[in-house]
């Protein structure tokens, strides 16, 4: 059988007769060439990593960590908003929390007021039971010398339930607390071990009452409020903010509207972002009996000025 057409063609005999010396030499040379080529390529492949991935990948390919990719910039926010929060039980005011959300400095400022705090000779508790939340707001605005944009008035049970929807938060208790109130219009008790504790809604309310009414420790009460704000204003709650707002509106007596909530969207995004370094400032009211001292009142006013 002839396998080439030109001069020097190699013939394989159809009758399997003895091959010529020329045929043997050519076939031997071909085998040697193939073996040498295989060995040579194998050595190069081991030394220089001739993998398919390496072959098809561009020379300048750089792997980028997902966490290093550029994040969307946060919205530009500004302005200061004052809130007054009242927690009551069957029209008995338990305490009042003042909060400023300062988007100019990305921070929270808080102070807790006793229910018996005197404003022009009348306690906040009496004003609340006789005239309602809006008159308490007016009295606090007169006391602080600034406007409060929104009021939030909640029954203690509703406040506790809504607080639990936001989730527990961690708080360090300095020393063990074992307390049961006596002679109070609204009784309560606190039993907390020393150390890091998870605080739920009812414990939050009772701890604030204990710090304010029993220890006269407004600083500890403020610290509790600030810790709850910093931990519960998070990305998970931001994702569920519409549902949480609907629950809030159903549970609270407030002048915060759906429009107000929508306009606050950018601010919530900034405050809830894990990369935002949110500040926290405690405005401590010092009392002489049930009256805030003039010196501390002047300091606290400065925190809530817009």
What would your notes on this structure say?
- The protein has 306 residues and is α+β, with helices and mostly antiparallel strands.
- It contains twelve helices and 14 strands.
- The strands form five sheets. Strands 11-6-1-2-3-12 form a six-stranded mixed beta sheet, sandwiched between helices. It has a two-stranded antiparallel sheet with strand order 4-5.
- β1 and β2 form a beta hairpin.
- The longest helix is centred in the first third of the chain and has 28 residues.
- The protein is elongated and about 130 Å long.
- It starts with 20 loop residues before the first helix and ends with a helix.
Give a quick precis of the structure.
The protein has 306 residues and is an alpha+beta fold. 44% of the residues lie in helices and 22% in strands.
Helix and strand pattern = HHEEEEEHHEHEEEEHHHHEHHEEEH
Radius of gyration, taken over Cα atoms and rounded to an integer in Å: 38 Å
| CA distance, first residue to last residue | 104 Å
The average pLDDT score comes to: 87
Uncertain segments? 1-18, 66-70
Strand order of the largest sheet: 11-6-1-2-3-12
- Give the fraction of residues assigned to helices: 40-55%
Q: How many helices?
A: 12
Shape descriptor: elongated
Structural class: alpha+beta
- The fraction of residues in strands falls at 15-25%
| Largest β sheet strand count, sense and barrel closure | 6 strands, mixed
Count of DSSP strands? 14
């Amino acid at each position: 059988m002839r396998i080439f057409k030109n001069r020097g063609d190699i013939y394989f005999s159809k009758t399997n007769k003895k091959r010529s010396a020329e045929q043997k030499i050519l076939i031997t040379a071909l085998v040697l060439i193939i073996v040498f080529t295989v060995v040579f390529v194998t050595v190069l492949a081991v030394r220089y990593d001739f993998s398919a991935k390496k072959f098809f990948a561009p020379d300048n390919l750089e792997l980028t960590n997902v966490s290093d990719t550029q994040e969307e910039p946060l919205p530009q926010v500004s302005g200061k908003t004052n809130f007054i929060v009242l927690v009551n039980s069957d029209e008995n005011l338990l305490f009042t929390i003042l909060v400023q959300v300062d988007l100019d400095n990305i921070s929270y400022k808080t102070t807790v007021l006793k229910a018996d705090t005197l404003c022009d000779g009348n306690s906040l508790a009496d004003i609340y039971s006789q005239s309602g939340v809006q008159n308490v707001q007016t009295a606090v605005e007169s006391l602080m010398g600034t406007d409060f944009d929104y009021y939030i008035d909640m029954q203690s049970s509703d406040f506790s339930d809504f607080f639990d929807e936001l989730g527990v938060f961690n708080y360090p208790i300095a020393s063990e607390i074992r307390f049961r109130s006596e002679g109070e219009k609204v009784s309560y008790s606190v039993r907390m071990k020393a150390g890091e504790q998870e605080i739920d809604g009812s414990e939050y309310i009772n701890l604030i009452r204990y710090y304010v009414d029993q220890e006269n420790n407004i600083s500890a009460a403020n610290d509790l409020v600030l810790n709850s704000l910093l931990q519960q204003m998070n990305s998970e709650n931001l994702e569920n903010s519409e549902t949480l707002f609907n629950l809030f509106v159903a549970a609270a007596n407030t002048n915060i509207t759906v429009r107000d909530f929508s306009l606050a969207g950018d601010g919530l995004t900034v405050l809830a972002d894990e990369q935002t370094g949110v500040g926290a400032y405690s405005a401590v009211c010092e009392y002489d009996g049930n009256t805030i001292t003039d010196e501390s009142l002047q300091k606290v006013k400065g925190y809530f000025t817009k």
